[in-house]
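Project outcomes to date are best conveyed with an example. Our students and postdoctoral researchers have been running inverse folding experiments weekly, and each run begins with a structure described purely in tokens. The record below, which covers 131 residues, was selected by the lab manager from last quarter's runs and is presented without edits.
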């Protein structure tokens, strides 16, 4: 992994942990769009995403969903170091050969984060390093 990717990965990791939930959701929404964040958060409407991003709204995603969104932010921020939001969105939604041709967004939404998280990160790092 290149030094640039490694630094971007570390920065994205630290931000994913330090950002308050509303700011994290807001940044993720800027990178991925409200519909994809809603999908990752297992909600039907983007209204929930808007509520999560509103600092004055007491509604927050569950701990499980927040952890998935933190991982998604970490990956999106890493990829955004080199690519546009459109490319980052396409990466999340496309069938990924490094992930047995399953979309990273689907794995993040449906999989056990402890099991699939490292694989998705490895695929993102490889994509970022190749770009």
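After processing, the design step wrote out the following sequence:
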């Amino acid at each position: 992994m290149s030094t640039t990717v490694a630094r971007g990965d570390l920065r994205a990791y630290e931000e994913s942990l330090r950002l308050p939930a509303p700011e994290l959701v807001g940044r993720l929404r800027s990178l991925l769009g409200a519909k994809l964040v809603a999908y990752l958060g297992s909600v039907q409407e983007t209204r929930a995403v808007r509520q999560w991003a509103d600092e004055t709204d007491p509604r927050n995603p569950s701990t499980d969903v927040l952890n998935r969104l933190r991982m998604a932010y970490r990956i999106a921020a890493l990829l955004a170091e080199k690519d546009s939001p459109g490319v980052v969105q396409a990466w999340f939604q496309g069938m990924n050969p490094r992930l047995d041709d399953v979309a990273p967004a689907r794995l993040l939404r449906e999989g056990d984060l402890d099991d699939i998280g490292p694989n998705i990160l490895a695929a993102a790092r490889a994509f970022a390093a190749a770009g």
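The CA atoms of residues 25 and 53 lie 5 Å apart. The two ends are 12 Å apart (CA to CA). The training component of this project remains on track.
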